[in-house]
Amino acid sequence: MECQECHERPATLHVKQVINGQETKVSMCETCAKKKGYITYPEEGYSLHDLLTGLFNFDTIKMTSMSDNQLNQVKELQCSKCGMTFSKFKQVGKFGCAHCYESFASKLEPIFRRVHSGNTKHFGKIPKRAGSGLQLKKQLKSYREELQQLIEAEAFEEAAKVRDKIKALEKGDKEPEAGDGS
Amino acid sequence: MSLEHFIKEALSPWMHEQGPDNDIVMSSRIRLARNFANVTYPILAEQEKLDDIRSFFKKEYEHQTFQNYKNLEFVSIKDLTPVEKSVLVEKHLISPHLVKHDEHAAVMISQNEQVSVMINEEDHIRIQLYFPGLQLKKALEEAFDFDDWIEEKVNYAYDETKGYLTSCPTNVGTGMRASVMMHLPALSMTKQINRMIPAISQLGLVVRGIYGEGSEALGNIFQISNQITLGKSEEDIVEDLESVVNQLIDHERVARNYIMKRSGIELEDRIFRSYGVLQYSRKIESKEAAKCISNVRLGIDLGIIENTSGNILNELMVLTQPGFLQQYANRTLNAGERDVLRASLIRERLKLEN
C-alpha cells in the first residue's frame, strides 16, 4: 500500500480512529506521518540506546509486586566507586565506570543476554599488558588440549614436545605473577 | 595549522586507493571502544579527570607515527568552528556525539586519515580505522596493532569474563563495531533490499542508511554492522559480517545484470538524465543530488558512462553536505544558497573529469 500523502513511499503507519461512531483510516509512510504529527521523535531522534533502555526496564512489573523492603534493596543498589545507582543506569543505559559491572553484577546477566543474543561471556581479544596472565592461561589451556589429543592419538614424540612447552610456560609464568602485585 | 587539509579535501587520502569490490563496497571500518581502568567514564567523570586524559593523549601521541599511520594530528574539538566540526563529522572522522559533548573532547587523526582516535566520547578512547573496499580482516589486524600500541601506555578497563568494559552495555566484550558502507542501487530499485534487511537483522547484524533520516537511504548507501559484541571473537564477528556482505554483493550484481537485460534502455535513460541534471542544473537539493550521484555512479560501474572516476560518488556525497558547502563558501549559507552552491560545485567537479 502506498502512502496516502506523498504517494511515493510505502505506507508503514496505519491508524484507525473512531470518533462518535465515525471511523477514519489513515495510512502513511514514516516521513509524512512525522510531518503530520502522528509520530514524534525526541530531540536526538531515535537511537538504539532508547530501545535498549526500554529493554532494561523489563523488571519494573516485578518490582511493583515486591514488598517495600525488597523495593528499597533494589533502589539502593549503587556503585561504590562512581555513585551510579542501578535505577539511574536503567534510565540512561550507560555505566558510570568499570566498577559498575561488579556493583550491578547480580542484575546484569539478563540484560547482557537480551542485548547480545543470549551471550554473557567474552570470547575475544585479551589486552597484552592488562591481560598478560590471562593470555598465558589461555595458551596453557590450548597446549593441554593439544597434549590430550596427541596422547589419545598415541603420538608420544609430539606429545613430549608439547609437554615441554607447557613446562617452559609454567616456569616463565611464575616470575611475572610473583612480581605483579595487582 | 595542518588541520586544514582534513577540512579542505572531501576525499580522504586513503579513498584514492582501490580496494576489493570497490564498485559496491565503498569502505570497511573497525571501531574499538576502550576505557582507562581506574577513571570514571565521561558521562560521570569529573571535568579535571577528562582534561587529564586529553592532556595525556596530546603529550604522548601528538605527531607520533605508528606504522602507516603517520604524524597524528591532535585536535581539541572545542577549538573548532561549527563548520569545521560538521566537516569532520561529514567525513566520518568524528561522531556527532563527540561534537555534542565537545568540552573535553579531542580527536587524533593520522595523515592519511585512515585512523582517527576519539577521546572522551561515550568511552574514553574510540579507535576507528578505515580501509577502501571490502577489507574487514585487514582492517581488524591493523586496528588490533594500533590498539596494542595505545595499550603500551594505557591500562585498559578489562575483565576476564566480560572483556573490555565499556560505558554502554551494547559494546561490552570486544568493544568492536565492524561496519561496511555499500552502494546498492539495483537492490534498492528492485525493492529487494526491503526484504533482505529483516533477514540480515536476524543474524545479529544491523542495516541502515548512512545519509538521510529514518528508513530511507539517501544515495542508496547502506551501512551494515555487527550488533553483538559479547560471546563471539572479533575474528568470528568479522567473518560473519563479511559473508553476509559477500552475499549482498552477489545479489547486487545479479540485480544489476537483470535490470540491464530487462530494461536496459530505461536504465540507460535514467542514468543519462541524472548525468544531465548534475552537469547542468543551477540549483539542486541534497536529496535529488544524492539520487543523481547514485545513478551516475551506477552508470560508471556498468560502463554506460565512460571517462569518469568511480571515486566521484564518495567525493560528491561529502562535497555536497551542508558543512562542506559552507566551509567552501567560507560563511554560513541558508538552504537556498546551499542548493545553488551545491549545483555549481557538482558542475565544476564533473567538468574536471572530461
UniProtKB/TrEMBL annotation, chain A:
Biological process according to GO: stress response to cadmium ion; stress response to copper ion
Alphabetized PROSITE patterns for the sequence: UVR (PS50151)
UniProt keyword terms in alphabetical order: Coiled coil
Entries under PANTHER family matching the protein: PROTEIN-ARGININE KINASE ACTIVATOR PROTEIN
Coiled coil: 133-160
GO molecular function terms attached to this record: cadmium ion binding; cobalt ion binding; copper ion binding; zinc ion binding
UniProt-listed Pfam families: UVR
InterPro entries (alphabetical): UVR_dom, UVR_dom_sf, YacH
Span of domain UVR: 137-172
Protein name: UVR domain-containing protein
From TrEMBL, chain B:
Enzyme class: transferase
Function: Catalyzes the specific phosphorylation of arginine residues in a large number of proteins. Is part of the bacterial stress response system. Protein arginine phosphorylation has a physiologically important role and is involved in the regulation of many critical cellular processes, such as protein homeostasis, motility, competence, and stringent and stress responses, by regulating gene expression and protein activity.
Phosphagen kinase C-terminal domain sequence ranges: 24-255
Sorted UniProt keywords: Allosteric enzyme, ATP-binding, Kinase, Nucleotide-binding, Transferase
Pfam families per record: ATP-gua_Ptrans
EC number: 2.7.14.1
Gene Ontology terms for molecular function: ATP binding; creatine kinase activity; protein arginine kinase activity
Catalytic reactions on record: L-arginyl-[protein] + ATP = N(omega)-phospho-L-arginyl-[protein] + ADP + H(+)
Species name: Oceanobacillus profundus
Motif RDXXRA motif of the pArg binding pocket involved in allosteric regulation, chain ranges: 338-343
Entry's Gene Ontology cellular component terms: extracellular space
GO process terms (BP): phosphocreatine biosynthetic process
Keyword Chloroplast: no
Record keyword Lipid biosynthesis present: no
InterPro entries in the cross-refs: Arg_Kinase, ATP-guanido_PTrfase, ATP-guanido_PTrfase_AS, ATP-guanido_PTrfase_cat, Gln_synth/guanido_kin_cat_dom
Family the entry assigns: Belongs to the ATP:guanido phosphotransferase family.
Record text on activity regulation: Appears to be allosterically activated by the binding of pArg-containing polypeptides to the pArg-binding pocket localized in the C-terminal domain of McsB.
Residues annotated to bind ATP: 27-31, 92, 126, 177-181, 208-213
Protein name: Protein-arginine kinase
